Amino acid sequence: MQGHGPGQETLQVGKEEVNIAHIEPVGNYAICLHFDDEHNTGIYSWETLYRLGKQREQNWTDYLRRLDEAGYQRKQSLTSTEPPTPELTEMRDEKTTHFGYEEVAVDEKAGRVRAVFDSVANKYDLMNDLMSFGVHRLWKRHTIEISGVHRGQRVLDLAAGTGDLSARFSGLVGAEGEVIFSDINAAMLEQGRERMLNEGRAGNLHYVQADAQYLPFPENHFDCVTIGFGLRNVTDKQLAIDAIYKVLRPGGRLLVLEFSKPTNKPLEKLYDLYSFSLLPKIGKVITGDEESYRYLAESIRMHPDQETLKGMMEHAGFERCDYFNLTGGVVAIHRGYKL
Question: What's the Cα-to-Cα distance from 201 to each of 128, 204, 272, rounded to whole Å?
Answer without folding.
Answer: 22, 8, 38
